[in-house]
Design brief:
It is a single chain. By secondary structure, the chain is an alpha/beta fold. The chain contains 10 helices and 11 strands. A 4-stranded mixed sheet has the order 1-2-4-3, covered by helices on one side. Strands 5-8-9 form a 3-stranded parallel sheet. Helix 9 packs antiparallel against helix 10. The protein is elongated, with a radius of gyration of 24 Å. The N and C termini lie far apart (76 Å).
Length: 306
């Protein structure tokens, strides 16, 4: 077999659109061509994959012309998550791995030069999309806990190395599916409104905004307590539902932030007053996903500090 297709997913904000890694081996001048709108880190995967295959004990088809296509071609691809699917595609196209073993699974992971798997960011959105597609997910062991947060219905297969993944696909040594015993408990304390002394009007405005789902604007000179009071708003909001907690965790996963310390909490974002509109895009996404006061805003509350 000279053609193999491996399923994986790209990272596009909170979305994880499907990507097919197509590998074709042909006669001609030896070389490796990578197409499909890859960015610099993806182009460098050619050298990582070559060294990983050789050091893991597999044969790299140096005498063949290798064409790698990351479809769809108009979707930007970035990061090292395509290393593992590219390596598996080369093994399948060169006959070292049955093409049928790649069916019903998706994979992602960065390869070290010795064939070990390294963690990649944005695993939770990828896991949620793989779960919706009804497929299994092969992922680096360092990402297994994060991927398992997607819940029941997703089989997470954690691996430490490329050799371990190939042994599983060949049926020689099966990988035990990873199970998260229970959702992590938040360990980071939240700012408490009880710490505030005075400011009765502003405290009342916070309570009304939280209870009624209103917009709230604090205005006044620096040092009057606007940020301190606003940071206490998440602490008086009700706990996040399971679906909302997953949405929050997906945002943090894409940003490369830890998930366990703040699981189920509504974080507070504090952009600087001089931040540009482009810098506020991510923060706006956080506010929309995390605060979730109410979509039916009735009135606006305005509190002026003097």
């Amino acid at each position: 077999m000279t053609l193999a297709i491996v399923a994986t997913r790209a990272g596009l904000g909170l979305e994880a659109p499907p990507v097919q890694v197509e590998v074709h081996l042909a006669n001609g001048l030896p070389g490796l061509t990578l197409v499909g709108l890859p960015e610099a880190a993806v182009k460098e995967s050619r050298e990582r994959v070559r060294s990983a295959l050789v050091n893991a004990g597999f044969d790299f088809p140096n005498t063949r012309r290798i064409t790698l296509n990351l479809a769809p071609a108009d979707l930007p691809k970035e990061g090292g998550r395509f290393d593992l699917p590219i390596a598996l595609g080369i093994l399948a196209a060169s006959g070292q791995l049955p093409v049928e073993s790649l069916e019903g699974m998706e994979c992602a992971g960065e390869l070290a030069l010795d064939g070990k798997l390294r963690a990649v960011p944005g695993v939770l959105p990828l896991a949620l999309a793989t779960k919706a597609a009804g497929k299994q997910l092969i992922i680096p062991r360092a990402c297994a806990d994060e991927a398992a947060l997607a819940g029941r219905g997703l089989t997470v297969l954690p691996a430490d190395s490329l050799w371990e993944v190939v042994a599983h696909l060949l049926g020689q040594q099966r990988i035990t599916p990873h199970q998260l015993p229970a959702p992590p408990a938040a360990t980071e304390p939240m700012a408490d409104l009880a710490d505030v002394r005075g400011q009765q009007q502003a405290r009342r405005a916070l309570e009304v905004a939280a209870a009624g789902g209103h917009n709230l604007i604090f205005a006044g000179p620096p040092g009057t307590g606007k940020t301190m009071l606003a940071s206490r708003l998440p602490g008086i909001l009700p706990p996040l539902s399971d679906d909302d907690a997953l949405a929050v965790a997906a945002v943090r996963s894409v940003c490369g932030l830890p998930l366990e310390k703040h699981w189920g909490q509504r974080p507070f974002r504090q952009p600087h007053h001089s931040a540009s509109a482009a810098a506020l895009v991510g923060g706006g996404c956080h506010f929309q996903q995390l605060l979730r006061l109410n979509n039916n805003y009735c009135d606006n509350l305005y509190v002026e500090f003097t």
